[in-house]
UniProtKB/TrEMBL annotation:
InterPro entries: Asp_de-COase-like_dom_sf (IPR009010). This is Uncharacterized protein. It comes from marine sediment metagenome. SUPFAM superfamilies: ADC-like.
């Protein structure tokens, strides 16, 4: 996961994703890899 930076501040977790699909740029779309969802304990 070279494109993922994680930072915790209190109860908040900020995630910065550097690698994105070029076709999605400027379209307000976010695609999250299943491995990232699992690592961050996100609910789908």
């Amino acid at each position: 996961m070279s494109g993922l930076n994680r930072k915790s501040e209190g109860d908040n977790i900020k995630v910065r994703v550097r690698d994105a699909y070029k076709r999605d740029a400027g379209r307000c779309r976010i695609r999250i890899d299943p491995d990232v969802i699992k690592e961050l304990n996100l609910k789908t």
